[in-house]
């Protein structure tokens, strides 16, 4: 399912050859015809971008695309220099062609069939797929800039679970002259669409045959700004038209996606009866949970058992990658994709009489779905088990993840529970500042010249532990050290030793220990020693301006956190405190900052606490956000001054 969905969503390709009756686009592709306001500083200009979706019936559709792009440099070539179409037993590519024009709009080359690459869709040894991909490309840097390329494709599909979406918005650094989307259906045929983020409104009509026609058109979109701090996610920012089926057919299955309950019911029907384990394994599960004191303990045992006897393999076979391999096969082979491993886990939970179900989800960092527009935009399946009133989420593709930890990949988002009578959207565990904690303590032994030896110990939880747990699980010692050095906020540093260890508590955590030598840990100037209380603390980028006309977004995965940093300096005995000890307290709607310092018996103790609350904020709040950052920066730059005691 993962790869199948990526074609339809992650690369929202909006291009199409005009069919009879479609709006007339230009055919002269000389560069001189481009409006200078569009081509100025652009990597590429999309001249024609058309998508035609012809719904023939509930069981068949044809998608036809045409993309014409003038490319000005290597960045534009990297973005638009090739195109891909995938196919399987449900999708047939009936046309894929390419034409290259020079700066004057004259044809330089047309791709032959032998120029188009055709390969299997598996990208690694752990992929099993019956998909194939055709790639049309003219190669890199083979033609002098600027030049124009045109790609045309037509695909016939018998999998009507998925309809194309459209956006006229160009990629960063690119502009659009003309973008067009057209849907054609039999008279009275019901399908669903939704216009978002300022997308142009639909124009409805009938053609000469009586078919219903829906059209969206956009012209002259300049390249988006690339210097925007904190832009809204594309999902909430770029113009989009979503389309989805009402009633549909695929193979011998019929369904509809009018509601989330309908979609859930279809997925359940598609996979019903595949959750039976072989008899010997059923006995193994019963023995496994014998003596467990609670349903939660049974869930934890089964999850750990499943992780230890199976591995993830991406499998894209059958009905769009949506129908799971049965639990018997997974029990025999020991591997499966997200659907199969989830189904295998559910089968084991069923033996243990633990109520549980599959949950469809859109995985990825801060990925989203339209909660008010039911459609098959999911790309992942997880398990949801119930222990009394408690819900336990299980990521079945990971051999290491602890039960009920979703993290940035599947946390804080809607999931569709799959139930026989129709499921519902529910939220996976949320990860806010109190869950994403860094708590660090550092002991710094300063020399009279300001150099320091540092022993630091930090504990990370929630989303803050994810980068380091991935280092432990997937990186060598050398790779771990390289990553740590690049992420330690200290100049002139020598990392002598380090240690990373996962916690044994139910809630996932990582403990990090560092031993460092730091030159100029404190600044020596004459007889004075300047010490920073915020040593090794997280820093924040400062926007160039405090003015803003649009909403801004602080990503939850980056800005929902709590940092608790304590640094203890052993100050050389021949220095005495010269300045007052700094104290700061800053509060805002975005979070809070607190710095406390104390000094006694040649030990300077600095305690810093930062709490951040990510999310979407209005343009009127931007000046307050910048002011908050300025105050934090000022507090972090404060220094405690010691002077040599010459008595």
Automatic annotation (TrEMBL):
Residues 287-374 form the Transglutaminase-like domain. InterPro entries: DUF3857 (IPR024618), Papain-like_cys_pep_sf (IPR038765), Transglutaminase-like (IPR002931). Residues 61-223 form the DUF3857 domain. It holds the Pfam family Transglut_core. It comes from the Bacteria. This is DUF3857 domain-containing protein.
